[in-house]
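BUG: 3D viewer hangs when loading the predicted structure for this chain

Environment: internal workstation, default settings.
Expected: structure renders.
Actual: progress bar stalls at 90%.

Input used:
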Amino acid sequence: MGVARKLARSRLTISALITAAVFAVVAGARSVGSLEELELDAYDWLLRSRPLIQLDDNPVVLIRLREEEIQKYGHPLCDARMAVALAKLQDLGAVAIGVDIYRDIPIPACTGRQGERGLPNNDTDLAEVVLRDDRVVIVAQPLEDPPVAAPKFLEGTDQIAVPDFKLDANGIVHRAFIYYSHENVPYYSLSFQLVLRYLRAQEINPTNDPDQPDLIRIGETTVPMFRPDDGGYHDADAGGYQYLLDFALGHAGFPSHTLEDLYTDSIPEEAVRGKIALLGTDSTSVKDHFSTPHSADLPDNPLMLGMEIHAHAVSQLIRFAHGETRPITSWNQRSEYAWILAWCVLGGAFGYWNRSGRFTAIASVVALVALLGACRLAIGASLWIPLVPPLLATGTSAALVTGFRAFRERAERSELTGLFSKFLRPEVAKAIWDQRDQFIGPDDRPRAQRIVLTSLMSDLQGYTTASESMGPEALMGWINEYMLIMANLVGDHAGVVDDYAGDGIKANFGFPIPSVTEDAIGKDAHNAVNCALAMGTAMDRLNADWQARGLPTGRVRIGIFTGPAVVGILGGRMSMKYTTVGDTVNTAARLESFAKDDFSSQAERSDWRILIGESTLQYLDGAFRAEDLGSHALKGKHQTTRIYRVSGTS
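C-alpha cells produced before the viewer hung:
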C-alpha cells in the first residue's frame, strides 16, 4: 500500500499515466477511422509541399474537347469525327492514344455540312481506324451498374481499359489502379494500357517481382500494392491493384491542344510523335472534373480534368519504369503507432519539464517545426508518415501534463509556503518554490536536514495579567495588535515566524532557505539582533499608545542564539508543520525566560530585554553594545552558557 500511495502521488507517475491515456485515446480514434479525413488533408498538404517536377520532354499530350467544339461538332462525337481525330493522331506519330470518352453505342450520323474542314464524310469508318493497330485504347465501365460497354468491334481485343482512379470519401482523388479483377478476369486501367504501349517501344515490359511475385515490377521499380490501412486510411477499399498518386507535375502540368487544333492540322508533329495522346472532354456541360490534393492550393479550388488525372497516372508509371520516382509507401501499423507514441511521450516530457511560458512557446515551436520537417522530408522521399496523430498526441499530452503540473504545483506551493508562515516575504516564497527540490523529498514530504541558523524567541510579559482583566474580544484585539507588529518586523528583517505560542513568537533567521557560508550566517545573526532592537522600540511605542487608550502595557523579553538546528516536518498531513528543533532553539527559549523578571539593569529600557548567547556575539563584529552577564546554568542544560544583554547598536 505504501508503494502504491507513493506512486499515486508521484508527479512522474501521474504524468506518465496522462501521457499513456492520451496515446490510448489518439490511437483509438485513429484505429476506428475518426482521424482519416484530417490525415488525408494533412497528406494533401504534404504532397503540395513537394517541389513539382519539371519535364524537358513530357511524354503525355492532351487533346481537349471544349464546350465550343461540343457545340460545333456535337457530343458525343459521331463515329466518323472520332475516327478522323484518331487517324490524325496516328498520322502525327503518337505511340499510344487514350480515349477518355465512352463509346458504348455507335453514333453513325454526323450533324453539320459534310466535307467541311474538320467535318468528315459519314463513311469514315471508326472501327477500321481503331483496329488499324493497337495504339488506340478506349475507356469503358463493364462492371458498373448499369455497365458502360466498349464498342462492339473491340470485343476480344486488349484495346479496352477501365478508368484509373478512385474517389475517397472526402471527394478527392489520391489513388489509381493498375488493374482490378472480376471473376479472375483482370481489367487493366487506361493509364497502364497506355504505358504498356509506350514502354514497349523502349523494350521495357512489366514483370512480376522475383521476391514478391504478387507485385508488378515496371522497369526498375516494384510498385507496392495499396493496403486498407496505409498511411492515414482506415479500412479503405483496397480492391484490385492500387497505388498512391503523387501528382508530381501539379495542376495543368501537361501540354495540351484542342480538338479544333487537331482537325485544322494546327498541331506540329513534334508535339505528338513518340508520345502518348489523351483525348477527353474539357467542358462544363460534361461532368468530368475532380478534386485533387492540388485543388486546395489554387485560387477558387479548381478541379482537375479526368484525362489530366489519367495523364498523372501515366507520367508516374513511366517515371517508375525509368527509376526517376519511387512509389509512395507508408510504415506498417506497428511502426506508425510507435511513432505516435514517441511524440506523445515527447509532449508529456515537455509538459513535465515545463517551468515557464517561454519554455512552452519555444518547446511548442521546436516540436511543431521538427514534426512538420520530419513529415516533409519523409514525403520528399516518397514515405507517408503520420502527421495529425502525433500532432494531436504531442499537443494534448503536453497541455494535459502541463495542466496537471500547474494544478499540482499550485497545491504544493500553497502547502510548501504554508508550512512556514503567512508572513513569508514574496522573494523568500519564490526562492523556496524555485528550490523546492531541496525541500521536498521523494515521498512528497519536506526533507529533514541540519542547518545553521539564528533562533529568536520572544515573550510578552503582562499578557497573563491583561487576560484576567480584559474581555475576550478586547484581549484578542490587544494581543493581535502586538503580534501583527512584531511578526511584520521579523519579516522586515529577513526572518520567518515559525510559530506562535500564546503571547510568544518563535522566529528563525537563515530559514527555510539555509545559509551555507560564514558571511551569510553572520548576516542572519545581525538581522536577528536588529529585529530584536526594532521589536523593543515598537514595544515602547505600543506601551505609550496603550497607556493613552487606557489599555494594559507590557514588556517583551527576547532570547537569541546561533547554532545548528534540525529542520523538518512535524505532525500529520492534516496538521503538519515545517519547523526547527534542537539545542539552538531550546537555548534561545531559555535565554528569553532567563531571570525573566530582571529588567532592572536596563531601567531606561525597562519595556524590553534582549539576551544573546556567545555564539551569536561572535558573528556581530562589535556592531552592537553587549553587556557580559557571565556564564549561567540554563534550565535543562548541563553546561553553562555565557549570556550577553544587548542594549543598542555601537
